[in-house]
Amino acid sequence: MVRRCVLAARLAVTKFFGCVKGKWKKTITIDDIEPAAFKSMLYFIYSDALPHFEKQDLKIMAQQLLVAADRYDLERLKLLSADLLCENLDSSIVANTLILAERYNCYHLKAKCLEFMSTRKALVAVAATDAFCNLMKSFPTFLEDI
């Protein structure tokens, strides 16, 4: 069971605690984060470290944790997630990662994504992904940054 006092000490976001009109709820429903990412976020809150991720889950989990960290104002988790993404960039995730970097003000991550796509070969590989269309729709001027 998650202890409210630990969460209160670590989180600046009060909506997380389930206090509505001065009364505490027994359960809190959180449906804006995947269960595995939420579990990883709780692990971080209690241990101040990231859990071990399986290689196939690492990139997606890091993206989800970046979003959750921003939403729940966990700046250190946001930085760790961004660093994890920087270390594991590849053409399959760089377009989505660039969107997240731009949306959540992760300038170092954005710079790494742009650096990754700076060669013609890498840009062609990224452009072949489905996420590239989302990138072009969300940030049509990103090519000027390369």
TrEMBL record:
SUPFAM superfamilies noted in UniProt: POZ domain
Pathway: Protein modification; protein ubiquitination
Name of the molecule in the record: BTB/POZ and MATH domain-containing protein 2
Domain of life: Eukaryota
Stored InterPro entries: BACK_BPM_SPOP, BPM1-6, BTB/POZ_dom, SKP1/BTB/POZ_sf
Native source organism of the sequence: Rhynchospora pubera
GO BP term, example: protein ubiquitination
PANTHER family: BTB/POZ AND MATH DOMAIN-CONTAINING PROTEIN 1 (PTHR26379), OS07G0655300 PROTEIN (PTHR26379:SF187)
Any Pfam family: BTB
Assigned protein family: Belongs to the Tdpoz family.
Domain BPM/SPOP BACK: 94-146
Organism lineage: Eukaryota, Viridiplantae, Streptophyta, Embryophyta, Tracheophyta
Domain BTB: 4-88
